[in-house]
Amino acid sequence: MPFEENDGRGKDRPVLVVAREAAGTLLAVQLSSKRHDGDREWVPIGSGPWDRSGRDSWVAVDRVLRLHESGMRREACALDRMRFNLVVHRLRERYGWR
């Protein structure tokens, strides 16, 4: 998804897709390589192939984004089950999802 700065840089904000709704839209949360140690609104997921520089990443759980699949520009990789479950667990805690 585009960066919110909307400054014409053409950069995309990386997201982690966590669910698909019945209507076909995707639910996603924002990824960041900026450190968020100790912040409960961010889940540390370490490094992976989604960041070419190999930096550690964090997932924001304070805001869930609703996206259309056609708006996704590319898929970087799938998150391994253990890290994905950490994110889903925190989302369930925060929003009461089942």
Automatic annotation (TrEMBL):
Q: Which Pfam families match?
A: PemK_toxin
Domain of life, per lineage: Bacteria
InterPro entries, A to Z = PemK-like (IPR003477)
A molecular function (GO) held by this record is: DNA binding
According to UniProt, the name of this protein is mRNA interferase PemK
Species assigned in the record: Streptomyces avermitilis
